[in-house]
Model the fold of this input.
Amino acid sequence: MKLYQERISADPRIMLGKPCVKGTRLTVALLLDILGEGIDPGELLEMYPRLTMLDIQAVIQYAAAVISEEDDLLPQAA
Done:
């Protein structure tokens, strides 16, 4: 079992069913956006004290799993 399967959930009653860290209203998309802006994972943990490093790893694993199932989102070079 992948780490994200234990730590990420999607419930239609929470954040409109968007994938979130279990037990929080922190969506995978929000956390990825924050990390993508250059915020250090340590800073992220300070911003959201209920979050753990395992949660951050699960968010990244989940995103990688989703992307691996998607068609390429970037336009192909001519």
Remarks:
- Strands lie at 8-9, 20-21.
- Residues 53-69 form the longest helix (17 residues).
- The first strand starts at residue 8 and ends at 9.
